Amino acid sequence: MRLGFDFGTTNSSIAHYDGRALTSIRLDPEGDNPYVLPSLVYIDRELRALLGTAAASEYLRRETGRPVAWEKRPVGEVEVIVGGSGGPIRYVQQMSVVVDTAANGRLLQSIKTALRDPAYEGTEIFDRFYTLDELIAMVLRELRERAEQHFGEPCRSVVLGRPVRFSDDQAVTERAEEILFKAGRLAGFTDIAFQLEPIGAAYLHHATTTERQTALVFDFGGGTLDLTLAELGGGEEPHVL
Predict the structure, then answer these.
(1) Cβ 221 vs Cβ 8: under 8 Å
(2) For the chain, what percentages of helix, strand and coil (3-state, to nearest 5) are there?
């Protein structure tokens, strides 16, 4: 069984299309829309992770109204270069960050936006460093497991939606797709394909429209906006103009 995943900046969802009917999966019974999972991850000091509305609720329960304890921690040094009439002046600056050591956990949101940053490799949460593909895999794995509970069978094939471009730099877009592929592997998928999000958004209309049409696909997401003209329907393959 092959699933379609929309891993979104704000929300994520999954569905299965058998050529006749589209089946959406209830992912977040606590949320306003149970068919989407907010792309939120809350990781506590025991490195246990909660996702979706449960992550937001746990964050509010454990972090609201607690004492704050700020601690300054060194993180390394950087070389600073300052221009001047007599030539550049170089010096080394010690860097530090201020950490709230009383935090019970950390809430992560908009993880997908990090795919556009070629310098972002991941983040340290308490005593563990999580790579970006590991963070994304948490969301994808949760979606896969809930789909398997719904269908009562293993789900190892997936089509992952992705923006047309993550960046004007093609290398950034290729890197982002590679990270998504690694995340899919970590989440337990063995057969991974990609589809551009505007095509994914238009496909159900394409499959159910008997007349050939030119359509404007407006994919307004939390992190990217794609506008696409496409010829759809009529029993022919969709064609992006």
Answers:
(1) yes
(2) 25, 40, 35
List the pLDDT tens digit at each of the 241 positions of the chain. 789 998 989 999 998 888 777 888 899 888 889 999 999 999 999 999 999 999 999 999 999 999 999 999 898 899 988 876 777 888 899 999 898 999 999 999 999 999 999 999 999 999 899 999 999 999 999 999 999 999 999 999 999 988 888 888 999 999 999 999 999 999 999 999 998 887 877 877 887 888 898 988 887 776 777 788 888 888 888 787 7
User: What is the distance of C-alpha 71 from the center of its chain?
Assistant: 30
Contact (Cβ atoms closer than 8 angstroms) between residue 234 and residue 209: yes
Give residue 165's Cα distance to chain centre: 15
